[in-house]
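thought: fold this chain, then report.
action: predict
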Amino acid sequence: MDRLQAMQVFVRVAQLAGFAAAARELDLSPAAVSKQVGALEEHLGTRLFDRTTRQVGLTEAGRLYLEHCLECLQAIDDADAAVDRLRQAPVGQLRVSAPIDFCEPLMPVLTAVMKANPALTVDLRLSNRVVEMVEEGIDVSVRVARALDGSFVARPIARPRLLMAGSRDYLQRHGAPSQPQDLSAHRCLVFTEPRPMTELTFKRGDERVAVPVTPRMLSNHGAALVAAARAGLGLVAMPSFLALADLRAAALEPVLTDWTLPAFTVFAAYPHRKFVSPKVRIFLEALVQAFGDDPSADPWWPQQQPIPPRALTNAGHQRA
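observation:
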């Protein structure tokens, strides 16, 4: 058995979740792929896959072996690339996952990387779910979260603030809340993933207030909620990278500006610290260059306080 080839075959079967799919990609027969995996399982003395007529899934041993196989194969690739690194630009496919709403700030970074490295292709996968980087073959997962748990490297990149805002039309009809408790009388537009934000926690100095909100609309797409707020349908809590353009254009006006909502962190997560490929390294460097070298800063927040809420009358409030 050629163990290196068997490991390569095993990795593609695991990442593509099928023997036939791996056989097509590797230009082998399904029987040859099955034989390679079988020989590997016999060598290890354990099953690597649970097979049914409909699907193929990794066993616990298979998941562990996959992780170490990827490190080994990456080490071999790095050894080959190290000799040629001075003259050769990064090549191959860079697989990146990111939340749906982070696409707009991320695209300038990816386009700059691709322009600077013509031999590099990018597979961008947008989803709000937490991806399994090793099993899905993801090189870098950009995540926006308060904290991350997992057996991977998570590099903080930036810390976008969260703010509450509404359209001038909505605020003229309903009035601007002067304290968090006033939100109980307002319609709110609620983000739903990983769980619906039906309770917001505000902080001012040592004061902390948790306020339940009544959803007028729920969505896992922040840009859709911002569009609904722009149309006057309610108040929305949104991250600064979605808010800045509307604040500058006065399409939305911030409320409760003397209070703060919990901030999130933009992380760049990748499977292993020890063997970082050139394509991953240049992408990480591009993220830092685009968003700044202070991971605790918010690069999307204006240097000065956003446009303050206008003086709005509280008279004649009528619910939409």
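thought: worth noting. The two ends are 71 Å apart (CA to CA).
final: tokens above.
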